[in-house]
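S.,

Sequence below, as promised.
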Amino acid sequence: MPGRIGILGGTFDPPHIGHLVVAQDALECLDLDRLIVVPAGRPPHREAVLDPATRLEFVRLAFDGDDRIVVSDVEVEREGPSWTVDSLDWVHREMSPEVLFLIVGADQLRSFAEWREPERILRLARLAVMTRPGEELKETDVPHEVIEVTRVDLSSTRVRRRLEEGRSIRYMVPERLRPAVEQAWSARWTQSPA
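The prediction came back faster than expected:
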């Protein structure tokens, strides 16, 4: 297994073009040999709309064809909440990286002290914080390095909202993924209550 590994987690509810762009930027900025994308099975701080298995399938479709990226089911298969520290442990056990980067957003850096076992996370991985051009980070004692990623003004929330409004999500999600996302939403909204 390669020496420089990055781990990019998230809810991916659903995955969109912005996720692919930041993955590419992280690979280049950190000179990674491999990027592991980890959809959260049961996010501890937010409720996902799509079930974990569907989100995992969608992330696999989104990143399919890029041999630098591995989509992991480690958090979907794990019982209980998806804690980052457990996933970092897993990467060390399974892959023994020379260097492991945990890739997070600027908003996650602000709340990092509230994460489960933040000191241990910092022993297991180097924090790489994604910023957008012109964005400045607030002062923090948390050791990290900054990687500048391409600004894509898109979120999973925006994709879901458009689906709920019956609007197109073309060009917002990878084209090979779009029919599956649209079908999942169509089925979700047409199901009658039990």
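The chain has a mean pLDDT of 91.

Coffee later?
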